[in-house]
Amino acid sequence: RSAPAISAGGRGADTLDLGVPPGSINWKRIDYGPAVAFSMHHTDTVDLDLVLSGSVELILDDGPHPMKAGDTAVVTGVDHAWRTGPEGCRLSVMSVGVAADTSSTDT
Length: 107
Prior knowledge:
Helices cover 0% and strands 56% of the residues. By secondary structure, it is mainly β.
C-alpha cells in the first residue's frame, strides 16, 4: 500500500500511531534528511515540536509554515504533513498521548 498524498486537509488523512498511550509522554530527537516529504496524517497525541537545526515546513490545511532552528509548534492531532529543507532538520519532539477523538459533529 502506498502512502497517502498530501491533501487539502480535513480528516481524510490517515492516522499515524506513534505508540504513545493516553496519559503517557514520549520525548525524542529526530533527524530527517534533506528534501524529505511526509504524507498528510494525524495522531492521537499533542506534539510539542522544536527545530534544533536545519529547516522544515509544517503543512496544515491553510498551507505550509516554514520553520527554522529555534522555532516551535504545537500540533494538536490535526491533519498535517512535513517537508524538510535542503539541509534536512533535527527536531526535539515531545508527544503527549491523548484519547482518540470519538466525538461526533452531528447535532
